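[recover] target loaded
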């Protein structure tokens, strides 16, 4: 039935194109009609093939679901109406044209609106949040920060049909094993929680609800926070907050410890000491002159910590503790983890980042590819140019900076781009 309806829509649009050409000479009209027929025939054949592949794949998924104990009632409610989502494949394959720098990322996420809304949500859920803190050791402002960054406190949970999206990705060769498992878990969730397809919407990759849990996280860590006997991360804010606390606790959250903090680095700081691999105790960082933003001592403790300079030596610096890495287990991005930490601080009444954010352009991927190519040419091996600023690229930049008596922060600042004579691509207006 889906095949017929899509063909009908396509045939109609093709007919409109054909009608618009009736004013051209007869030979052109005849040629256009022949070309259109060939084009439509080719499109139809390729679509039938793709549709057959998806149907074959979902049939195999249906058998797996049955083997794993999914009821026939659930099978009948889900599998006959699965639709291949072409946009999901486009999103999975797409790469951003521009590379996000920390100032651009942070300023769009840690906003006054999110801060004020977080405080409002704290007042609404204060009793529950305190209970969760007592049970799991995760303070309220962190749960609120995750909620704010994931879905704007539930204002945007995604619009893609989760079951369709996951089935599409399961039937795609690139990451089939992972998404097959996630799809089957989502089917079982549908059955276990008595959900309906209309409410099961989320991100194109299948993340769901207020806190954007993948199905496996939903299954293992989501809990009933409002006591109604159902775990619904779309409809229940209490379920979502309780599940987030349980998830973070299981990820290793250390009660009584911060995520980290903004710091002042000494003028002679050796930026080669930054990064996760250079962890030291708080006492050792204190001894080399790192201070809090108000100029006071970091303090003496055995707590393991490391220094992060996400925007290079001209931007803010942070010292990160174990809970910072726990945040990164939720989303493996230092930018994200800093944003969660600072937003949490602001919701609890702190003032946010003190150091100014440098004015950096949004580099295009071509800019970074050009940078990587130039570094390779000069003997600073960063691997195959791919437009991604990963560890190898940062190490190459750092080695280039050292060789040229620059501050070796491993960051592609404008000073590095200018020194390497990289002509930056302009963002179109």
């Amino acid at each position: 039935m889906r095949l017929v309806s899509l063909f009908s829509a396509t045939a109609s649009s093709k007919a409109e194109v054909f009608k618009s050409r009736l004013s051209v000479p007869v030979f052109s009209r005849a040629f256009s009609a022949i070309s259109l027929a060939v084009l439509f025939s080719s499109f139809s054949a390729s679509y039938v093939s793709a549709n057959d592949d998806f149907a074959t794949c979902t049939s195999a998924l249906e058998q797996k679901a049955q083997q794993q104990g999914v009821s026939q009632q659930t099978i009948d409610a889900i599998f006959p109406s699965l639709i291949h989502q072409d946009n999901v494949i486009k999103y999975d394959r797409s790469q951003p044209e521009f590379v996000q720098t920390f100032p651009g990322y942070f300023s769009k996420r840690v906003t006054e609106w999110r801060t004020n809304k977080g405080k409002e949500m704290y007042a609404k859920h204060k009793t529950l949040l305190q209970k969760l803190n007592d049970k799991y050791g995760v303070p309220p402002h962190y749960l609120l920060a995750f909620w704010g960054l994931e879905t704007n406190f539930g204002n945007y949970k995604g619009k893609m049909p989760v079951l369709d999206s996951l089935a599409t990705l399961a039937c795609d060769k690139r990451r089939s094993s992972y998404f097959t498992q996630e799809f089957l878990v989502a089917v079982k969730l549908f059955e276990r929680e008595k959900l309906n397809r209309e409410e099961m919407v989320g991100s194109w990759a299948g993340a769901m609800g207020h806190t954007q849990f993948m199905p496996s996280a939903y299954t293992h860590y989501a809990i009933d926070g409002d006591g109604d006997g159902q775990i619904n991360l779309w409809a229940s804010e209490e379920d979502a907050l309780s599940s987030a606390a349980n998830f973070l606790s299981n990820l290793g959250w250390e009660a009584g410890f911060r995520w980290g903090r903004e710091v002042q680095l000494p003028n002679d700081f050796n930026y080669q000491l930054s990064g996760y691999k250079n962890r030291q105790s708080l006492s050792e960082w204190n001894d080399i002159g790192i201070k809090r933003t108000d100029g006071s001592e970091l303090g003496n403790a055995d707590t393991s910590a490391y220094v992060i300079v996400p925007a290079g030596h001209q931007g803010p610096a942070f010292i990160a503790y174990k809970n910072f890495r726990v945040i990164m287990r939720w989303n493996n991005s230092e930018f994200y983890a800093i944003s969660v930490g600072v937003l949490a601080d602001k919701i609890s009444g702190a003032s946010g980042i003190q150091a100014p954010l440098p004015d950096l352009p949004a580099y295009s991927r071509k800019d970074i590819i050009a940078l990587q190519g130039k570094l390779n040419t000069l003997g600073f091996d960063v691997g195959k140019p791919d437009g991604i600023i990963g560890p190898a690229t940062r190490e190459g930049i750092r080695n280039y900076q050292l060789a040229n008596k620059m501050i070796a922060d491993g960051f592609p600042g404008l000073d590095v781009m200018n020194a390497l004579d990289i002509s930056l691509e302009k963002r179109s207006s």
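[recover] notes: The longest helix spans residues 26-67.
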